[in-house]
């Protein structure tokens, strides 16, 4: 029986960690031997790969490229046991990622003619009754909305990675049980973290959260209580690459839920925080994928946490 169904937009990540803080422009050049190519990229795609690497039987709607890059990305996902429901594109998207000082700059490279905005109208309609959880980043809007509705009707947990505002965000949230959004969405909607949590509650999300990097997570639990979960205090010299840490957070709480549905969401989020912390020490998503639960649990025990904070108005 399959456990997790996801809808996401895939990328191949090219990560270059520069020796200097300056990014070359014009005719400048620089050289680094600290780089990686990850054929697993994209928000929900990375979260699904994280879960699959830890034994969660997963299915995924995403693009499959006819080019060599796309074929290799497809192979990387299927090697983890993920079944792909494909949308065929001829030029697979690529991200150029430059990690610096715990942050990262990203250049997205994708063919606008094949972009998701053209729609995915002929996607397969599968029976969702055997799944235990659904996760989406909101891309492939028609597919995400359809399966969020189907899974909600079947009382399957629905989860959203709200990394940014999309045309379907407001409608999609009506069918989401667990909405974990980035600070960027707050900025785009001109909402404070507290106002965002109230907005998520108004949409009917049973659990809602705003991730804030090293400031931790502001969230409300299944009882509606707002609270702060501080980040773990990782020394700056141990942070290799923050890109993908949020995706590991999503993968973390999905794995925790699928393994231990009886636990409260505070415990699921604690495991997610450990997963996000684990990612910081690896360059690229693919290199960081864990192979055992103990690897994540150990990361959650290595560092003290920052102090708790009140949620600002």
How would you explain this protein's 3D organization?
The chain has a single domain (4-301), classed as UDP-N-acetylmuramoyl-L-alanine:D-glutamate ligase (3-Layer(aba) Sandwich), CATH 3.40.1190. Helix 7 (245-259) packs antiparallel against helix 8 (265-279) and helix 8 packs across helix 10. 32% of the residues lie in helices and 24% in strands. It has 313 residues and is of the alpha/beta class. Helix 3 (141-153) links the parallel strand 8 (133-136) and strand 9 (157-162). The protein has helices spanning 43-53, 68-78, 141-153, 169-172, 183-189, 193-202, 245-259, 265-279, 285-288, 293-301, and strands spanning 4-7, 11-16, 35-41, 58-65, 83-89, 94-100, 103-109, 133-136, 157-162, 178-182, 207-211, 217-220, 226-229. The protein has 10 helices and 13 strands.
What descriptive keywords fit this protein?
24% strand, 313 residues, alpha/beta, 9-stranded mixed β-sheet, 4-stranded mixed β-sheet, 32% helix, UDP-N-acetylmuramoyl-L-alanine:D-glutamate ligase
Put simply, the count of helices is 10
User: Which assembly state applies to the chains in this document?
Assistant: single chain
Query: How would you write the strand order of the largest sheet?
Result: 5-4-1-8-9-10-11-12-13
Question: What number of domains?
Answer: 1
Number-wise, the strands total 13
Quote the CATH topology.
Answer: UDP-N-acetylmuramoyl-L-alanine:D-glutamate ligase
Helix percent reads 25-40%
| CATH class identity | Alpha Beta
Strand content: 15-25%
- Unreliable stretches: none
Q: Helix/strand/pairing class, anyone?
A: alpha/beta
C-alpha Rg, in Å?
Answer: 19 Å
Order of helices and strands: EEEHEHEEEEHEHEHHEEEHHHH
CATH architecture: 3-Layer(aba) Sandwich
Shape: globular
CATH superfamily: Ribokinase
Main pleated sheet: 9 strands, mixed
* Average pLDDT level: 94
Instruction: Tell me the distance between the termini.
Output: 45 Å
């Amino acid at each position: 029986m399959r456990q997790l169904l996801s809808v996401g937009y895939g990328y191949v990540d090219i990560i270059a960690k520069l020796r200097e803080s300056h990014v070359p422009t014009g005719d400048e050049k620089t050289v680094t031997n600290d780089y990686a190519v990850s054929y697993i990229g994209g928000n929900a795609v990375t979260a699904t790969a994280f879960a699959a690497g830890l034994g969660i039987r997963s299915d995924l709607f995403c693009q499959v490229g006819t080019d060599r890059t796309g074929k290799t990305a497809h192979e990387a996902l299927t090697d983890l046991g993920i079944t792909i429901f494909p949308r065929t594109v001829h030029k697979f998207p690529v991200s150029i990622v430059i990690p610096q000082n715990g942050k990262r700059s990203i250049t997205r490279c994708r063919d606008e003619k094949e972009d998701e905005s053209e729609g995915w109208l002929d996607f397969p309609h599968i029976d969702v009754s055997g799944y235990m959880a659904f996760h989406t980043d909101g891309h492939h809007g028609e597919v995400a909305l359809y399966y969020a509705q189907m899974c909600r009707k079947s009382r399957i947990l629905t989860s959203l990675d709200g990394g940014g505002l999309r045309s379907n965000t407001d409608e999609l949230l009506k069918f989401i049980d667990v909405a974990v959004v980035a600070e960027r969405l707050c900025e785009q909607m001109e909402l404070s973290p507290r106002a965002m949590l109230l907005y998520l509650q108004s949409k009917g999300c049973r659990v809602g959260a705003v991730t804030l990097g090293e400031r931790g997570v502001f969230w409300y639990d299944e009882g509606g209580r707002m609270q702060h979960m501080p980040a773990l205090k990782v020394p700056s010299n141990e942070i290799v690459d923050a890109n993908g840490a949020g995706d590991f957070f999503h993968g973390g709480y999905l794995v925790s839920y699928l393994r231990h549905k009886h636990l409260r969401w505070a415990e699921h989020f604690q495991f997610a925080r450990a997963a996000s912390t684990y990612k910081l020490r690896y360059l690229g998503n693919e290199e960081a994928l864990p192979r055992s639960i103990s690897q994540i649990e150990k990361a959650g025990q290595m560092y003290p946490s920052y102090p708790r904070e009140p949620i600002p108005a």
